[in-house]
Design goal:
alpha/beta, nine-stranded mixed sheet, 332 residues
């Protein structure tokens, strides 16, 4: 998860006489797809003519970073292919299925389709809604605040941790699974976050930062150029831009969430985790541009402070992480 984007994370299994003889999943972006890895894992290629292939998404039919998977399946003359769901990408969209049928392969579509749609939700959202899959994430105190009163921060400018170290590590795992992470100016100025996966073995997400007036200077971690970073601003003065950082000008007088989604679409970003702050999160909620929300509730009470965002969503399930409660919401 998180390595194949913007490609989907496809899984494939090959069966001969009710026995699995090959399996594979999509390599990190630019590498072989699931069907190629599954076919290559079969020791006796002579069995492929009498085998069934199961795959979560329609095999590709075009040349991209790799040759078409449909051609490889046809070349080895697999007799039957079971597909979870048709690929909505305009370069595929039934063309892979047609290639297989034209090669004499029997094709069944829609096997465990609901499960496959859930598995491919990032890719499908990007293709069908023309925006990334959006995850909102925040931690709130037991009495519903994101942060205590500002005067408590004056003597200690470090982030005020609401959750325990295990929840923090889980968030770093999530970062490794999504293509990008988004925060606002205030979050950077107050917390100076790195927005990386320091507490988890995995790739760092692309950092996306809203900075209307370019208030964030080179002393902040997000501008250290160690990770791909995109700054969304209204300042068009290239002399104020830092080399190695991408700057995109947007119109702050218009709804922001939809503009941010358009920028991420242009950068081929299929998923983003919105980590703050309160204003940024509420912007996505108010524009109804979110797919799921992951909300931690810690045991600390502030009594007063910055209120947590107000969310209208369906509570999917809850988990306990020692003293923290983690709630998962979906935007149905």
């Amino acid at each position: 998860m998180g390595t194949t984007a913007p490609n989907p994370m496809v899984g494939c299994v090959i069966v001969h006489n009710k026995k699995i003889i090959g399996e594979g999943f999509t390599d990190p972006y630019g590498g072989p797809h699931a069907e190629v890895n599954a076919i290559n894992s079969v020791k006796d290629k002579g069995l492929l003519k009498e085998s069934l292939l199961y795959v979560t998404l329609e095999p590709c039919s075009h040349y991209g970073k790799t040759p078409p998977c449909a051609d490889l399946i046809a070349k080895h003359q697999l007799k039957e292919v079971f597909i979870g769901l048709q690929d909505p990408h305009d370069k595929v969209a039934g063309k892979g299925i047609k290639k297989l049928k034209d090669a004499g392969c029997k094709v069944t579509i829609g096997v465990l389709e609901d499960e496959c749609r859930k598995h491919h939700k990032r890719f499908l959202t990007f293709q069908e809604k023309k925006r990334p899959y959006i995850i909102l994430k925040w931690a709130e105190s037991d009495d519903g605040f994101l942060a205590p009163q500002p005067f408590l921060r004056k003597n200690n400018p470090e982030p005020f941790w609401i959750t325990n170290p295990y929840s923090k590590q889980l968030v770093h795992q999530w970062r490794s699974q999504e293509q990008a992470i988004l925060v606002g100016t205030k979050t950077v100025l107050e917390d100076n976050p790195k927005l990386t996966t320091r507490n988890w073995a995995g790739k760092n997400p692309i950092r996306v930062v809203l900075d209307k007036g370019l208030k964030i200077d080179a002393s902040y971690h997000v501008l250290d150029t160690s990770v791909q970073t995109i700054i969304l601003t209204e300042i068009e003065d290239a002399l104020k831009y830092i080399e190695g950082v991408a700057y995109v000008v947007i119109d702050f007088s218009k709804p922001l969430a939809i503009q941010i989604c358009d920028v991420l679409l242009q950068h081929n970003i299929t998923s983003v985790i919105v980590e703050g702050g309160a204003k940024m999160l509420q912007t996505f909620i108010d524009e109804n541009l979110w797919d799921e929300a992951r909300v931690f509730k810690g045991s600390v009470c502030f009594g007063n402070g910055l209120p947590a965002p107000k969310l209208q969503g369906t509570l999917h399930h809850q988990e306990k992480i020692l003293t923290d409660t983690l709630s998962f919401y979906t935007n149905d």
